[in-house]
Specification:
Structural class: alpha/beta
Low-confidence stretches: none
Mean pLDDT: 90
Strand content: 15-25%
CATH class: Alpha Beta
Number of helices: 4
Distance between the termini: 24 Å
Strand order of the largest sheet: 3-2-1-6-9-10-11
Radius of gyration: 16 Å
Number of strands: 11
Length: about 200
């Protein structure tokens, strides 16, 4: 089995699992927000978030608490199909929390309008379908976060924190040389850093 076919097979099972976990954990947003002060996110940091789609793990209360710490919340945008993500912060008075000025990408994702100012996050909160104990992440197959993390890590340290239901952990996520590891994971059971593969 090729790496691509192995990932494709795991994605199918992971989507079904995540949907079930979302139904079983209606208080997920509140539970992860309780761990805000445990995250390695200093006051005033620029933090990339995402707008959950479908049954992705929600961030609303966590982001509100980070804003209280003075963090700037920014969001990713697909600039080109095979390129890293761009990040943007909301312009003043944009009402982004209530859906103002968002556009829908060709992938069906709600993202910033292109005129929003560009940003350069130090921390990335990353959605996923599955993760393993070494920080490997199963995404949706577009490679956007892998390209983005490779680009940013070549320039300066950045921290990638996966956000997931605890039950999304699997024994092993198939990975290749281009796959970027997460530094840590935040679930409804707490925050934990990953050890490098031995």
């Amino acid at each position: 089995m090729t790496l691509a076919s192995e990932k494709k097979s795991l994605r199918t099972a992971a989507r079904e699992k995540r949907a079930a976990l979302a139904r079983e954990t209606p208080d997920f947003a509140r539970r992860i927000a309780a761990y805000t002060d445990e995250l390695p996110i200093p006051a005033g940091a620029t933090v990339s978030a995402y707008r959950p789609m479908g049954d992705e793990a929600g961030l609303s209360l966590l982001l509100a608490r980070l804003e209280l710490k003075g963090c700037r919340i920014v969001f990713p945008r697909v600039a080109a199909k095979a390129a890293p993500l761009d990040f943007h912060h909301a312009p003043p008075n944009s009402n982004w929390e209530n859906g103002g000025e968002w556009v829908t990408s060709g992938f069906g994702v709600s993202e910033p309008a292109p005129h929003w100012p560009l940003a350069d996050p130090e921390i990335l909160l990353v959605p996923l379908l599955a993760f393993d104990a070494h920080g490997y992440r199963l995404g949706y197959g577009g490679g956007f976060y892998d390209r983005t993390l490779a680009k940013h890590r070549a320039l300066r340290p950045v921290t990638a924190i996966g956000v997931a239901y605890a039950g999304q952990e699997v024994a092993r996520v198939p990975h290749g040389a281009h796959d970027q590891r997460l530094d840590a994971i935040l679930t409804e059971r707490g925050f934990r850093r990953f050890a490098a593969p031995g």
